[in-house]
Design a protein that fits this description.
This protein is an alpha/beta fold and about 220 residues long. The chain has a single domain, classed as 2-Layer Sandwich (BirA Bifunctional Protein, domain 2). Helix content is about 30%, strand content about 30%. It starts with a strand and ends with a helix.
């Protein structure tokens, strides 16, 4: 099966960040990158991210008093802590960014599935008739999410802009190897070198947007 990307830079980001810093980093990466970049990271403490369109009051009632942060992408609530979190930034200049959101999402997860099946051979994509509506991402599989048995193990959401496409995903696979994830998405993978200019953009986005009460409570 052809891979969604011909080339990709992998960023294994071990920097400790607040929830606001994590989301700012993902968004800044899309605006900064000149070629596709996959950022793979973990959380220093449990937190919940929730979709751009979700209402704060509804999310707060389910969040178990954990720190909350609204994502730039859509989707439902995600409880972070034990997961491997993925941010794939695809610039608008890439052919992969020009497809429909459904096609991009399914292509990303078809690629990820090839890596996951090395660990969980019974894992597969969710069928349309298996979808369930609900506010919590991992309790509400949508088409092309990844399940193993009865458990959803990978879900994500997209954000499209003039800069391209940002995929934000959560993977529950303790033994996941970032290089294997990257190689499942691209024919050629190289290492991403973070520039000082990117960190400046992250800091600016965090302070001007994600750390503000207005962003959290916009809906």
């Amino acid at each position: 099966m052809p891979k969604i990307l011909s080339h990709l830079q992998l960023w294994e980001d071990s920097s400790p960040r607040t929830p606001a810093g994590q989301m700012a980093c993902d968004e800044a990466l899309l605006h900064f990158c000149e070629m596709p970049v996959l950022r793979v990271y973990r959380w220093t403490a449990p937190a919940v991210t929730f979709g751009y369109a979700q209402r704060l009051a509804a999310v707060e009632s389910l969040a178990r008093r954990l720190p909350l942060m609204r994502r730039w992408s859509g989707g439902g609530m995600v409880f972070h802590g034990s997961d491997v979190t993925l941010a794939l930034a695809i610039p608008a200049s890439e052919a992969a960014a020009s497809g429909s959101s459904r096609d991009i999402y399914s292509a990303i997860h078809e690629g990820l599935l090839s890596a996951i099946q090395k660990y969980l051979p019974d894992s597969r994509l969710v069928l349309p008739e298996e979808c369930r509506c609900g506010p919590v991402c991992f309790e509400s599989p949508v088409a092309f999410d990844i399940i193993a048995g009865a458990s959803k193990i990978c879900g994500g959401a997209l954000r499209r802009s003039k800069a391209g496409v940002l995929y934000q995903g959560s993977l529950h696979l303790p033994g996941a190897v970032p290089a294997e994830i990257a190689n499942s998405l691209a024919a050629e993978v190289s290492r991403f070198e973070k520039a000082t200019a990117l960190q400046a953009s992250i800091d600016k986005l965090a302070s001007s947007k994600y750390e503000t009460p207005a962003w959290l409570a916009m809906r």
